[in-house]
Specification:
By secondary structure, this protein is low in regular secondary structure. The two termini are about 25 Å apart. It contains no helices and no strands. The chain is extended. It is about 0% helix and about 0% strand.
């Protein structure tokens, strides 16, 4: 649902390819809020 936290993970051994599709007049990524990140991309407030 809109506004819920979610995470994508691949626990398997087969490499996944993710295709993200966006539509509409604005295609930015500045609405992403990172709560936890295994790659160190979480920004401290």
């Amino acid at each position: 649902p809109q506004g819920s936290t979610h995470r994508l993970e691949n626990p398997g051994e087969v490499l996944l390819e993710i295709i993200e599709v966006q539509s509409g007049p604005y295609l930015g990524e500045d609405d992403i809020i990172r709560f936890d990140d295994a790659y160190g991309r979480v920004e401290e407030p």
